[in-house]
From TrEMBL:
GO biological process, one term: terpenoid biosynthetic process
InterPro entries: GHMP_kinase_C_dom (IPR013750), GHMP_kinase_C_sf (IPR036554), GHMP_kinase_N_dom (IPR006204), IspE (IPR004424), Ribosomal_Su5_D2-typ_SF (IPR020568), Ribsml_uS5_D2-typ_fold_subgr (IPR014721)
Active-site residue list: K11, D136
PANTHER family membership: 4-DIPHOSPHOCYTIDYL-2-C-METHYL-D-ERYTHRITOL KINASE, CHLOROPLASTIC
HAMAP family cross-referenced by the UniProt entry: IspE
Domain GHMP kinase C-terminal: 206-279
UniProt catalytic activity: 4-CDP-2-C-methyl-D-erythritol + ATP = 4-CDP-2-C-methyl-D-erythritol 2-phosphate + ADP + H(+)
Pathway: Isoprenoid biosynthesis; isopentenyl diphosphate biosynthesis via DXP pathway; isopentenyl diphosphate from 1-deoxy-D-xylulose 5-phosphate: step 3/6
Family label: Belongs to the GHMP kinase family. IspE subfamily.
Function as written in the Swiss-Prot or TrEMBL entry: Catalyzes the phosphorylation of the position 2 hydroxy group of 4-diphosphocytidyl-2C-methyl-D-erythritol.
Positions bound to ATP: P95, V96, A97, A98, G99, I100, G101, G102, G103, S104, A105
Record-given protein name: 4-diphosphocytidyl-2-C-methyl-D-erythritol kinase
Length: 289
């Protein structure tokens, strides 16, 4: 019998600051992230089905054979080899390798769903397991706005100062398997200063302050992403000129971009305009959480 589906919302980097390259080769970051209440994948568990992952949905074929849901199942099976997990169905609605954390969101949804179904898994420290699956999986496990630092492992809750809506847009272009590594290579980040200090989370009391903060901090990966994907510049230009758009920026390493709006009506209008002008793009409107 299938259990209630678990939603795997898209993750949007409202800001993404790369502070420097660490001695271990990783990049120190600071990012304000939010999640899409209305745009994401869905995961369903059938408890009496074989332990296989079935993938369906608009972007099922783009996912390929390896995915983080399978990695999550394999990890849990190693930890609890006697637990019969059941079969998972992933409805892949988000573009793959898009800069909106789709794979990480799927892994986090699998952890939540399997934890709800199995008391043995509920007793585990899911955050520790999430860290072994990917840098973004812990924040996706929460799926609420937050400030991420380190390489993503340090997470501080952040309350959005009001309702805000977004359009997500992706040009559906071919993306290399090493996209993120290539974007970071083009960034050519300097070594992290030895005296680098942490920063207190921002205190933002209005949507206007949030947008000013996001605009000021920006996304350090935008310039190298534009170099790798020239379409990003055109997308940002189209998003920025939509009626009542407050801000347009890149999410993650791209190529997905987002635009922010004060109202759902403005975001919905923007989606209609983009779909009419750019029917080849994937476009979605959402409230941020």
């Amino acid at each position: 019998m299938p259990l209630k589906p678990e939603f795997a919302p898209a993750k949007i980097n409202l800001t993404l600051e790369i502070l420097g390259r660490r001695s271990d080769g990783y990049h120190e970051l600071r990012s304000l992230v939010a999640f899409a209440a209305d745009a994401g994948d869905r995961l369903t568990l059938t408890s009496d089905a074989p332990a296989l992952t079935k993938v369906e949905g608009l972007f099922a074929n783009a996912l390929g054979h390896a995915n983080l849901v399978d990695a999550t199942v394999e990890t849990l099976t190693r930890i609890l080899p006697n637990v019969i997990l059941g079969g998972l169905t992933l409805e892949k609605n988000l573009p793959v390798a898009a800069g909106i954390g789709g794979g990480s969101a799927d892994a986090a949804a699998a952890l939540r769903l399997l934890s709800a179904a199995h008391p043995e898994i509920a007793g585990l420290d899911l955050t520790v397991i999430a860290r072994t699956l990917g840098a973004d999986v812990p924040v996706c496990l929460r799926s609420r706005s937050a400030i991420m630092t380190g390489i993503g492992e340090t997470i501080v809750d952040f309350e959005l100062p009001g309702e805000i809506f977004a359009i997500l847009a992706n040009p559906l272009i071919e993306v290399p398997d090493n996209k993120t590594a290539e974007v970071f290579r083009l960034l050519r980040a300097q070594p992290l200063p030895a005296d680098a200090t942490s920063e207190r989370p921002p205190v933002l009391s209005s949507i206007g302050e949030l947008i000013r903060y996001a605009a000021t901090r920006g996304n350090s990966l935008e310039a190298p992403a534009r170099e790798l994907f020239p379409q990003v510049g055109a997308m940002l230009s189209e998003l920025a000129k939509l009626p009542r758009c407050r801000l347009a920026q890149l999410s993650g390493a791209g190529p997905t971009c987002f635009a922010l709006f004060d109202t759902q009506q403005a975001a919905s209008l923007g989606v209609r305009i983009l779909k009419a002008s750019w029917p080849q793009w994937w476009v979605a409107a959402t409230r941020l959480i």
